[in-house]
Amino acid sequence: MINNSDLERLKLNIQNANHIVIIPHLNPDGDAMGSSLGLYHTLTNLGKDVKVVTASAFPRFLDWMPGIDQSIDFEASADSAITEIEKAQLLIFVDFNALKRAGDLGDILGKSSAIKVMIDHHPYPEEIADIMISVPQSSSTCELACRVMTLLEWNQFVDKNAAECFYTGIMTDTGSLSYNSSNPETYRIVAGLLEKEIDKDNIHQLVFHSNSFYRMKLLGHVLGKKLILMPEQGAAYMWLDEQELKEHCFQPGDTEGFVNYPLGIEGINISAFFMVKDDKVKCSFRSRGDFPVNQFSEQNFNGGGHRNAAGGESKLSLDETVEKFKTELPLFFNKYANNEL
Ligand SMILES: [Mn+2]
Q1: Which of 40, 131, 231, 245 is spaced 20 to 30 Å from 4 by Cα?
Q2: pTM of the model
Q3: Where are the beta strands (DSSP E) in 37-114?
Q4: 320 Cα: distance to centroid of ligand 1 (angstroms)
């Protein structure tokens, strides 16, 4: 729920701030970049000096987004990222609700004396901001951010650029409105964005049909050679090591969405994907129905997220991480099946 006093404080604090920095989560996806840039355009139109600072690079399939070339990547340009954060009177965290989700930027954000706002739709928020707008029922942070702009009566500042960005996050977080999107309110927001004359078919094309040759080959490789089923749990898992990524000229974002493919197999309702990232193993989990991958990830892989979509990480080797999954999933699944969670 969004309460009125939070909205009033948000409005006042935005009105009073000149420099505003918006921060999405680490390894930003369509919803994280969409909500960052949607707010960036909207608040810029309101006359504010706004910057988007990311904790790590955005994926290639989003490089068409209006304004994305103005965002500052902390990993690539730490100094200018820190300068912007220091200059900010207001920080807006979007699409995450725990500072660890901002990676190495988390500490810097935690220590900042700026007023902090969080706009997010993940469950179990930590108290990381002065103004917390947390609505786990929302399909996406983009939907929520858009609703907030309307409630603040700033809809006229949501221009076509902002609308394209907001639409992108709703589209990517709901699999093009195929899941997590049964609330009529989502469509009212989409209708409002279409009224801004966005070309939604083109956005779909840009995001989903602009694979690089290498990404397509990598997808073929992982499905062909690295997909294992666990029929008793209705689960499947896949993994990629550093060598395989290198051989396919890996770029950030290339493995985005891979974890969803096994759910297309009859009888598979749980999917996991593991890959090496820096000195850790990045874990992604998906499910259909009520199997809570967020709880599973929280208990075993230092992660969390939504019931049907969660992330995590492991400091074990890739092989050990996969072994851990093979051991822990059946144990957790039994508890789930016996209603013992
Ligand atoms: Mn999201």
Answers
A1: 40
A2: 0.89
A3: 49-54, 72-73, 90-94
A4: 29
Q: How far is the CA of 227 from the centre of ligand 1 (A)?
A: 26
Segment 12-47, tens digit of pLDDT: 999 999 999 999 999 999 999 999 999 999 999 999
Instruction: State the CATH architecture for 4-208.
Output: Alpha-Beta Complex (3.90)
CATH T-level topology, domain 213-337: Diaminopimelate Epimerase; Chain A, domain 1 (3.10.310)
What is the CB neighbour count within 10 angstroms for residue 104? 12
Neighbours of ion ligand 1 (CB under 5 A): 31, 95, 140-141, 173
Q: What angle do CA 32, 8, 42 make, to 5 degrees?
A: 40
Comma-separated ranges of CATH 3.90.1640.10 domains in the chain: 4-208
In tens, the pLDDT along 128-149 reads 999 999 999 999 999 999 999 9
Rounded to the nearest whole angstrom, what is the distance from the C-alpha of residue 22 to the centroid of ligand 1? 15
